[in-house]
Design goal:
By secondary structure, the chain is an alpha/beta fold. It has 7 helices and 14 strands. A 7-stranded mixed sheet has the order 7-4-6-5-12-13-14. α1 packs across α5.
């Protein structure tokens, strides 16, 4: 049974954040809210925890995992950011965007696709996620809590928090609850791994971008 933490969505208690961070350093896996959907996550550097996340989501080892960073400057430790990518990212972070970027050696290989040394990175605009990042001092894996059913298809368990928690309680070590209901809209994904930025997925925040960003639309070919 997972340990349940009830946190205020805007002002989470520092004591609870530190307690969760301590468990994450020891390899715990958590179900937690982000500024998009509820996510399953762990410390980026905790190898066994990352493997457990893959097992929970039934993800093959060649499926890349997205992770959260605290800021644009923090991203630069884990990815190579071109001038064009920086110009765009600076205008939209923190927010509901995932950026595909060439990875640095700081990113564990088991998080990357063996075919592409790229990272999917987000900077969340949400107090709990940011508080956890600060308390932990490492990036946090963030894969949506959309679970495969018996046929291998993804489902979201409606949007009912109780069903989501019941389904994942036996699988994770920590569940973070807030007074808010889970979101259901995923992040917008932008690929900055080539000279021309590419749109991989239209999600939250896309309407704010489409009037000024020039991208190749590859949104029908979503690998993340």
């Amino acid at each position: 049974m997972a340990k349940l933490y009830s946190l205020h969505p805007q002002n989470p208690q520092q004591r609870d954040l530190e307690a969760i961070a301590k468990q994450l350093r020891s390899g715990a896996v958590m179900l937690y809210p982000t500024d998009t959907v509820y996510a399953i996550g762990c410390d980026l550097t905790a190898k066994q925890a990352v493997q457990k996340v893959r097992k929970i989501k039934q993800l093959a080892n060649d499926k890349p995992l997205t992770f959260l960073c605290s800021s644009l400057s923090n991203i630069s430790e884990y990815a190579l950011v071109s001038d064009e990518a920086y110009r765009i990212m600076k205008r939209v972070v923190p927010g509901p965007y995932t950026f595909l970027l060439p990875a640095t050696k700081q990113v564990p290989k088991m998080v990357l696709s063996p075919k592409r040394r790229t990272s999917g990175i987000r900077v969340p605009d949400q107090a709990i996620s940011q508080g956890l990042l600060e308390a932990l001092g490492n990036p946090i894996i963030s894969t949506s809590a959309h679970m495969p059913d018996e046929d291998g298809e993804l489902f979201t368990l409606g949007l009912e928090k109780a069903r989501l928690f019941d389904a994942l309680d036996p699988l994770v070590d920590i569940i973070i609850d807030t007074e808010d209901e889970p979101g259901f809209k995923v992040s917008t994904i932008l690929d900055f791994t080539s000279n021309q930025p590419a749109l991989i997925r239209k999600g939250l925040g896309w309407e704010e971008l489409e009037s000024w960003i020039d991208v190749v639309d590859l949104s029908e070919d979503d690998d993340y």
